[in-house]
Amino acid sequence: MPLVPTAAVVAAGVNVGRWWLAREGTVGTAVGLGVLTTALGLTGGPVARAALAVLAASTDLLAAEAALARLHHS
Q1: What pLDDT does 32 receive?
Q2: Could you give the CA distance from residue 24 to residue 56 in angstroms, rounded to a whole number?
Q3: Whole-number Cα distances in Å, 54 to 16, 47, 59, 72
Q4: In angstroms, how far is CA 16 from the centroid of its own chain?
Q5: What are the b/e assignments for 12-21, b being 16+ CB within 10 Å?
Q6: How many whole angstroms from its chain centre is CA 14?
Q7: What is the mean pLDDT for each group of 10 consecutive residues in the chain (74 residues)?
Q8: Which of 10, 23, 43, 56 is surrounded by the most beta carbons within 10 Å?
């Protein structure tokens, strides 16, 4: 059994893709970043997993900030 559940790693990859789309990035790049993040989480060591946890929390905050900025400019 992996140290980090697969669902958590996939969720982090999806979060990174959502963040990129919220920044008005392209779908292809969002998918690529999500896959890269997921691969890093599944194959990386403890340092990579810790960085991934920080990245996942950061993308939550940044996506919320981007959504609020869009509402403010509407």
Answers
A1: 95
A2: 18
A3: 11, 11, 9, 27
A4: 2
A5: bbbbbbbbbb
A6: 5
A7: 72 86 88 91 83 80 78 70
A8: 56
Backbone angles phi, psi at 8, to 5 degrees: -65, -40
Predicted pLDDT at 74: 61
Task: Give pLDDT, residue 56.
Answer: 77
Cα angle, residue 59 at apex, residues 57 and 62 outer, rounded to 5°: 115
Amino acid code (one letter) for 68: L
CA distances from 69 to 2, 11, 13, 15, 64 (A): 38, 24, 23, 18, 9
> Count of CB atoms within 10 A of residue 40's CB?
17
Which is nearest to 24 in space by CA: 73, 72, 67, 71?
67
Token pair 């059994």 is found at: 1
At position 1, the amino acid (one-letter code) is M
